[in-house]
Design goal:
- The complex is a heterodimer of chains A (about 120) and B (about 110).
- Chain A is an all-beta fold.
- In chain A, a hairpin with a 6-residue loop joins strand 4 and strand 5.
- Chain B is mostly beta strands and about 110 residues long.
- Chain B is globular and about 40 Å long.
- In chain B, the strands form 2 sheets. In chain B, strands 1, 3, 4, 7, 8 and 9 form a 6-stranded mixed beta sheet that branches.
- Classes of the chains: A mainly beta (about 120), B mainly beta (about 110).
- Chains A and B meet through strand 5 and strand 10 of A and strand 3, strand 7 and strand 8 of B.
């Protein structure tokens, strides 16, 4: 059974860097075809894709946020880490990690999400 | 950038059929995935690759995709289907971008 769970700070100050960890189980991060994505959702708004990291360490970012994002993985720990620099109040929302379907580019299993508030 | 357009809301009576559209330029050439999100919960994949259902998703959920419009159809709507629904496509091997629609709130009357 595939599961994912996000963890990280619930409150960050403006200009700080946010670091979120996605701990996965039920699959290995280095198996061909595997990928984990990060998606966020401001309160009352739509889903927004942020980044994806693939089994071969290929990394893809949202063009509008690329300069602020870094995604990495630690296969031995079964973790994927997302860093977002220069946080602003508009970055407040729920952040999700999700498993990419093995044979398609949808997201078939999601973590419960973690809520991040950006405020001084 | 690629934009997916969804109606903000759809209302349907129990037992009737809800149809949610997702518009995009030549979306019929892409694979469309649909998610259901209930308040306070993470999204759940209900349809992938236009019209396939993950294990555990009722047959009442179906999809189609052609031309500039993809559609999620919920037959015999139940109260528990009330949720936000999002369509999503993948931008392809050039940029690997995931694009989500703006979401549709389905209200069961």
């Amino acid at each position: 059974q595939i599961t994912l769970k996000e963890s990280g700070p619930t409150l960050v100050k403006p200009t700080q860097t946010l670091t979120l960890t996605c701990t996965v189980s039920g699959f290995s991060l280095n198996i061909s075809g595997v990928a984990v994505g990060w998606i966020r959702q401001p309160p009352g708004k739509a889903l927004e894709w942020l980044a994806t990291i693939y089994w071969d360490d290929d990394k893809r970012y949202s063009p509008s946020l690329k300069s602020r994002l870094t995604v990495t993985k630690d296969t031995s720990k079964n973790q994927v880490v997302l860093m977002m620099t220069n946080m602003e109040p508009v970055d407040t929302g729920t952040y999700y990690c999700a498993h990419k379907g093995f044979y398609y580019y949808g997201l078939d299993v999601w973590g419960p999400g973690t809520t991040v508030t950006v405020s001084s | 950038s690629y934009v997916l357009t969804q109606p903000p809301s759809v209302s349907v009576a129990p037992g009737q059929t809800a149809i949610i559209t997702c518009g995009g330029n030549n979306i019929g050439s892409k694979s469309v995935h649909w998610y259901q999100q209930k308040p306070g919960q993470a999204p759940v994949l209900v349809v992938y690759n236009d019209n396939d259902r993950p294990s555990g998703i009722p047959e009442r959920f179906s999809g189609s995709n052609s031309g500039n419009t993809a559609t999620l159809t919920i037959s015999r709507v139940e109260a528990g289907d009330e949720a936000d629904y999002y369509c999503q496509v993948w931008g392809g091997f050039r940029d690997h971008v995931y694009v989500f629609g703006f979401g549709t709130k389905v209200t069961v009357l």
